[in-house]
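Field: sequence (string)
Field: structure_tokens (string)

Example rows 1 and 2, in order.
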Amino acid sequence: MYNDDQLYEYVGKKILESRSLPHRKITQMELAKFLGVTFQQIQKYEKATNRVPLNSLLKISKYTKKPLAFFIPLEHAGYTLDKPVELTPADTDADVREFIETQVFRNP
């Protein structure tokens, strides 16, 4: 189980890892431009100095072509990567976002 600081350290390391793939290196500047932030902000996300907002993490996932689960230690919320999170047809995007924000990215 991760505390909040450890969780964001994990996410930051995964952001750095997603930029440093052997077949395609993405610079902090490229990612920052896509997100509409400075490269210093990307540095702060990667070092967990600042917490990456969920909407930015979703954009990073899209830009790096990595699934959102790559960035989130699902075991923190009681899930493992070997079994998918089960959602019913009644679950909406808002429900999923609320789950992630309240269970995975809880603010102190």
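Row 2 begins here:
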Amino acid sequence: MEAISIIVDTREQVPYAFGSRQVVRQALPAGDYSVEGFESLIAVERKTLEDFVHSVIRDRERFKKELLKLADYLHPCIVVEASLPDVLLSRYPSGAHPNSVFGATVSICVDYCVPVFFCGDRQAARRFTEEFLVRAVMQQLSQRAIDMNQKSNSSQAKPRINEEWAAFLENEAAQMEQHDDSNPDLVMAMRIGADAIMKRGPFGGVD
């Protein structure tokens, strides 16, 4: 199982750089970032603070259509390249009142079940986006492996599933280590998980 390929929407004007990861440019039905093979399940919408304020205040009707699309995803989120204090202190060119922007943010989270993450700045937002995509894929692959294990009547299939899942974790750990701002705890957790899978087989491996 190879490392994931990140999809960047063709309309994304200033895309994030993800180091040595494979990046594919293609039109996405929703969001700016997803993962190849999971385009209908995972979506990250990137916003600068100015763009976010404009979307929730001046361009609400169009943005509602985007939110309805995101609400259908299993792992959607909106990433804002600013902090919540930036909103409350009106650190944006629009004349919109901070309370209106704050209220609209809460509405997105509650009414559409789409979480909004204020990451502080662009660099932190890029890192959050990458780890969000990786963890969402890990959850999906884990569930798929469990489903395959439950459906399979072959004792040969279970060790194979474990080997593929462990290989994926190792590949992802190696990819993340190449970034200067990689999360060492996550890398270690992936390696420990891969080792545990091969030894104990959480998806029904051999003893």
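free_text_note (row 2): The chain has a mean pLDDT of 84.
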